[in-house]
Design brief:
Blueprint (H helix, E strand, L loop, with lengths): L18 H13 L4 H15 L18
């Protein structure tokens, strides 16, 4: 699912995350010498590759569910 940077312009997304999760993302990004944005984009790409071709994903009740 790797895309060429010249194929399409990037889209901006705004999301709200748990403060503790963001602290962990910032720490991991800093220790890996990448930006938090890069780390989140990479995580999204890996998630999409995992579920590529599926119409939906099964999320157990009470696990990973965030209202908002």
């Amino acid at each position: 699912m790797t895309k060429s940077k010249t194929s399409k312009p990037m889209k901006r997304v705004t999301l709200t995350v748990d403060p503790d999760d963001y602290t962990s993302i910032e720490r991991l990004a800093r220790q890996s010498n990448v930006s938090a944005s890069w780390l989140i984009r990479r995580s999204m790409r890996e998630f999409l590759e995992q579920y590529e071709g599926q119409n939906r994903i099964e999320i157990p009740i009470g696990k990973g569910r965030v209202d908002g």
